[in-house]
Amino acid sequence: MRPPWEGYRIAFNGSAGRLELLVEESTWTRPQARTDGASAVMHGAAVGDEAGRTQLLLRRLWERPGEVKVATGEGGHGGGDVRMLEDLFGGRTPGGADPLGRAAGVTDGARSLVTALAANRSFDTGLPVKARDLLDV
After folding, report:
1. CB atoms within 10 A of CB 22
2. Overall average pLDDT of the 4-19 stretch
3. Rounded to whole angstroms, what are the CA distances from 123 to 36, 55, 64, 135?
4. pLDDT, tens digit, for every residue of 61-90?
5. How much is the CA Rg of the chain, to the nearest whole Å?
């Protein structure tokens, strides 16, 4: 079941003011109709009047806040779903152009997995767990 609101807010306070980002994936959730697994719509694929927004506010000290324009792509997660699926299943060749260096590699995936394993061990034991203690290298 999807939550009634999807998104996040984040703010950074600095010596010259504050930067606030609001990302709404959806502003509300429709009641879900029963579907079989073959006909379910992938998250972010169907967008109606529940579509959210992205807003970036710059609040400089002693000035009125100003909105900074943010470019987002088409589709779910501001276009991120499309880019991720292209990376995974085609469109961008492995090792191909990645001008911003955003693509995760095998090492990044392994680190993510070890972090999750350490967290689960910590939940089970109630104690801190060092990720390197889980590796037999």
Report:
1. 15
2. 90
3. 35, 36, 45, 18
4. 999 999 999 877 776 666 677 777 777 777
5. 20
Sign for the pseudo-dihedral over CA of 89, 95, 97, 102:
positive
39: confidence class by pLDDT, cuts 50, 70, 90: very low
**40: exposed, middle or buried (Cβ count in 10 Å: 0-12, 13-18, 19+):** exposed
Q: What's the predicted TM-score (pTM) here?
A: 0.50
CA 65, CA 34: separation in Å to the nearest integer? 45
DSSP state of 99: T
If you write DSSP's letter for every residue of 10-59 in order, what string do you get? EEEEETTEEEEEEEEEES--PPPPP--TTTPPPTTS--STTB--EEEEEE
């927004």: which residue's tokens? 53
Tokens of 4: 């009634």
What dihedral do alpha carbons 92, 38, 27, 12 form, nearest 10°?
A: -40
- What is the per-residue pLDDT for 105? 80
